[in-house]
Amino acid sequence: MSITISGDGTITGISSGGLNDGIITDDELNLSANASNIKTALNASGTAPIYACRAWVNFNGTGTVAIRASGNVTGITDNGTGDYTVNFATAMPDVDYAVTGTAMRNSTYASDANPVVVALKSNTTYSDNATTSSFSITTHWSADASNQDPIAVCVAFFR
Questions:
Q1: Do residues 58 and 34 share a domain?
Q2: Mean pLDDT by 10 residues, the chain (159 residues)
Q3: pTM for this one?
Q4: Measured distance CA(106)–CA(114) in Å, rounded
Q5: How far are the Cα atoms of 28, 84, 95, 115 from residue 81, in angstroms, in the given order?
Q6: Does residue 46 lie within any of the structural domains?
Q7: Nearest to residue 156, comparing CAs of 66, 80, 43, 52?
């Protein structure tokens, strides 16, 4: 049986599912009207707005750079030791997004008191690193600021 949606919002041909009366109202489609349901589904409480992660990546920064898992990331460009560009599959709406990241130097130094830091490229500004289609980072050892190729780099982008 085929599913039909008429001009008045009536849906026919559904044998089971989440629609009580076969009609989707404007209120049911309104995200602000369903904000509490969305927050509950995301395990969020309170009245503060929710902002989604627009892109994220977990990659191996040593040897041949390889993405372990990602969302909205097409690839990583390896620009040299501890120097990477994260390329987005779908562009950001502007360059005013927030970036956060972490890295692990290597398994030998897993409990090292001087971790690897994910940062903007040195001697650059945020606008030099951020475009709507990519973001450039460096990973360096906090003890002496030397660039490192970590075994794990995780970066997330919010807007």
A1: no
A2: 70 61 60 68 74 92 94 96 94 92 71 65 70 91 81 91
A3: 0.69
A4: 12
A5: 51, 8, 25, 16
A6: no
A7: 52
